[in-house]
Amino acid sequence: MARGYMGRILNVDLTTRTLRDEVLDESLYRDFLGGYGIGAKLLYDRMAPGVDPLGPDNLLGFFTGPLTGTPTIEGNRFVVFCKSPLTDTWADANCGGTFGPHLKMAGYDGVLVSGMATAPVYLAIDNGQAELRDAGFLWGKDSNETEDLLTEAMGESKGANGKAVEVACIGPAGEKLSLLAAVMNDKARAAGRAGVGAVMGSKKLKAIAVTGNAQIPVHDPDKAQQLRRQYIKSTGGAYELLNQYGTIGITGDSAMSGDSPVKNWGGVGPVDFPGARKKFHQDTLIAYQDRKYGCWRCTIACGGEMSVKEKGPYQGLQSHKVEYETAAAWGTMTLTDDFPAIMQMNHLCNLYGFDTIGAGCTAAFAVECYENGLLTKEDTGGLELNWGNAEALIELLRKMAAREGIGDVLADGVRKAAAAIGKGSEAYAIHIQGSEVPMHDPKFQPGLATTYKMDATPARHTQGHEDMPPVLDGWPEHDKYTYTGKGELHKQCMEMVHVVNAAGVCLFAYMSYDWNFMPDFLTAVTGWDIDTDECYRIGERIANIRHAFNLREGLNPLQFEVPPRLIGDPPQTEGNLRGITVDIDTQVRDYCDAMGWDPVTSVPSRERLLALGLDQVARDLHG
Predict the structure, then answer these.
(1) What backbone torsions phi and psi does residue 323 show, to the nearest 5 degrees?
(2) In this prediction, what percent of the chain has a pLDDT beyond 70?
(3) Residue 538's domain is classified under what CATH number?
(4) What distance in Å separates the CA atoms of residue 42 and residue 336, rounded to the nearest whole number?
(5) Residues 238-248: pLDDT tens digits?
(6) What is the mean pLDDT of the chain?
(7) Are 165 and 69 found together in one domain?
(8) How far apart are CA 85 and CA 198, in angstroms?
(9) Average pLDDT of the residues in 37-58
C-alpha cells in the first residue's frame, strides 16, 4: 500500500450489527485518490440505482484522503457521501476541523455504513477496535451535548501520548430527518450540504466517535516537512483576507458588488440593503471575535470564537465565528442586519445540526411567501415573517428543528415547501434539483452557472470553475462575460478542485498557495510520481464517476432547471450587475464539449471513459 493511507476501511452493517475490516486494492487509491473519489467508485459499484435515500440500502461513507493528517498544508478534511435525499443525486459534504485526521489515527481511511439500526446507536473506534454501542442516552441531544457526552464516555486523555476523542454526529434536525440536516463535528464544523445528516438519522446512527494515536505513514517525511516550510513562506490569493478576517470578511462588500444574493435573490444590495456595507464591514464584524483558531495544523486559521458584548437580548452569547455563507443566507437574503441575531441563528443551526445555507435560504423563501400573502399569520403560527424580522426568524428556526407547524413544511427545503404551499410559491423557491443555491451569484461569477447546473452535486460553489482559478503564475486570464471558449478552462479548474477535495485538503489552501503544492505533497506523501497532468486525469476520472452515478439514476443535468433570477432573466435594472444575463447555454455547451459529454444526453463518450479506465461505466452507458 502506498504511503498516506492506513490501508483499510471499516464496513458497518447496522441491520445485522456486524463490523468488517476491508483492504481496498491499491489501484483504487491510485485512480481515485480518496475522499469522494473513492466514495463515488464504491457506491457506483456496490449500490443499485433507485434506492430510497432514507432507506437501509443507501450507503453512507465517512472518508479521508491521502493528505489528511499529514504534514501537508491544510490536510485536515474528510467527506461524507451517499445518495442525496434532497436532490436524489450523488451527495458529498466536505468538512474540516479535527475529526478527519483522528479517524486515520484511529486506524481507518474511511467508514462505509449500510443498513438501518432498530434503535439509536453510535460507532466507537479506539485504535483500530470498533464497536456499535447504544445511543439512547444521546438521542434528542444537540450536537454540542452529544460531543461532550461521547468525549466523557470514550475516556479522553491528555498529554504527549494521550488520545483525543473526536466526534461526528447529528443534532435534532438529523434525528427528525430534515433534508437540510448536516453532520457536525468540533461543535461548529459542518458537513452541511445535500441532506447527509438526514441519511445518518434515517439509519439511527447518532454519532461516530474516534480515538487513536496511530502514525500516518508518509513516504518521504523529511521532504514533506521541507515542502511545508517552503510553501508557508509564500502566500497569495485569498490568504491575507482569510487569515485576518476569515470568510466573514467579504460580507459587506459582497452585498454591494452583487456577489452575495439579496432579498431571496430578488433584490439589489445598494437598493434593498444599503446599510449592509457599514453593518457588515469586516472590521465591525471581527470586533466580535474573542479568539481565532484553525482546523488541525492549519496555517491560515480562518476560524474563531465570538461573543456579544453590547447590551440587548443576545448579550453574553458565545458562538463559533459566523461564516460568510451563514451571514449571507440569514442576513442579506432575509434583509437582517442585526449581527448578534445572526450569531444566534448560526449558533442554533450548529446545535440543531442544520446546513446554514439550506436553512437560511428556506427562511428567506418563507419570508417572501409571507410578504406576498402566500403564507398568512395563521399559517406561521403567529410569526410575522417580514423582511429583517430577526426575532421571528429565530423562532422559525426553532420550529424547523422541532418540525412544528410551519417548521415542518420548511424542514425539507424550498422545493418540497413550495410543493406543499402552492399558490405560485414555486417562483420564490430558488433551487437547482432541490438544492438551495449558495451565496455566490452567477451574474457576478458566470462560471458558477455551469458548476451549479452540471456538477454531480447540484448548486455547489466549492467544485471549481474558471472564475475561481488556482494560484499559479501564467494561468490564462479571461473576460468572465465572454461566454464562449471557456469549457477547457472550466474543466481544468474543476479537475484541480476534485483532486484537492479527494486528497483531504482544504479548498482555502487551493485559494492561498501556489497550486504546485498539491502534486508536490502528493508525491512526497504517497511515493507516487504525480504531476499536474496526472492531477488533471485523476480529477476528470472523479468527475465522470460522480456524473455516471447520476446518469444511472436517470438524471441528466442538462434537464435541470436554473431559476431565472440566478442568471439575470430578466436582467437587474440597478446595482453592479444591472443589464447582465448569463449565457448559461453557451457555457454549458462548451463544457460538455471539453468533457466529451453528449450535448443532449450528457453521456460521456465511450472513448473518453475507456481512456480514463472506466471500462465498466462505458459498458453500462453504451452497452
Answers:
(1) -90, 165
(2) 99
(3) 1.10.599.10
(4) 43
(5) 999 999 999 99
(6) 97
(7) yes
(8) 8
(9) 98
Task: Confirm whether 441 is domain-assigned.
Answer: no
d(CA 534, CA 80): 25
| Residue 313 in domain | yes
Mean pLDDT across 595-609 = 98
| pLDDT value at 34 more than 90 | yes
Same domain, 487 and 614: yes
Q: Could you give the CA distance from residue 204 to residue 199 in angstroms, rounded to a whole number?
A: 9
Helix axes 356-371, 390-402, angle to 10 degrees: 120
Phi/psi of residue 79, each to 5°?
Answer: -135, 145
**What value does the mean pLDDT take over residues 491-508?**
98
Put residue 12 in one of left, alpha, beta given phi > 0 → left and psi -120 to 50 → alpha. Answer: beta
The radius of gyration of the chain's CA atoms, rounded to the nearest angstrom, is: 23
481: domain range? 447-622
Residue with cell 461569477: 445
Would you give the DSSP letter of residue 273? -
Distance CA 361, CA 343 (A): 16
Task: Give Dmax (Cα) for the chain.
Answer: 68
In this prediction, residue 1 carries a pLDDT of 76
Sign of CA dihedral 53, 463, 72, 182: negative
Residue 471 DSSP one-character state: B
Quote the Cα angle for 383-385-390, to 5°. 95
First to last CA, the chain: 34
Candidates 87, 107, 121; CA nearest to 203 is 121
Same domain, yes or no, for 360 and 454? no
Residues 6+ apart with CB under 8 A from 19: 10, 11, 12, 13, 130, 131, 132
State whether 179 and 268 are in the same domain.
no
Contact present, 452 and 431 (Cβ < 8 Å): no
DSSP string, 212-229: --PPPP-S-HHHHHHHHH
Measured in whole angstroms, the distance separating CA 151 from the mean position of its chain's CA atoms is 25
Q: Which residues 6+ apart lie within 8 Å of 65 measured at CB?
A: 33, 34, 35, 75, 77, 78, 501, 502, 503, 504, 505
Tell me the C-alpha distance between 138 and 470, whole Å.
Answer: 43
Structural domain count, the chain: 3
Q: How far apart are CA 327 and CA 438, in angstroms?
A: 12
How far is it, in rounded angstroms, from Cα 160 to Cα 151? 18
Q: Residue 449 and residue 442: Cα distance in Å, rounded?
A: 5
Residue 293 has pLDDT above 50, yes or no: yes
| 535 within domain boundaries | yes
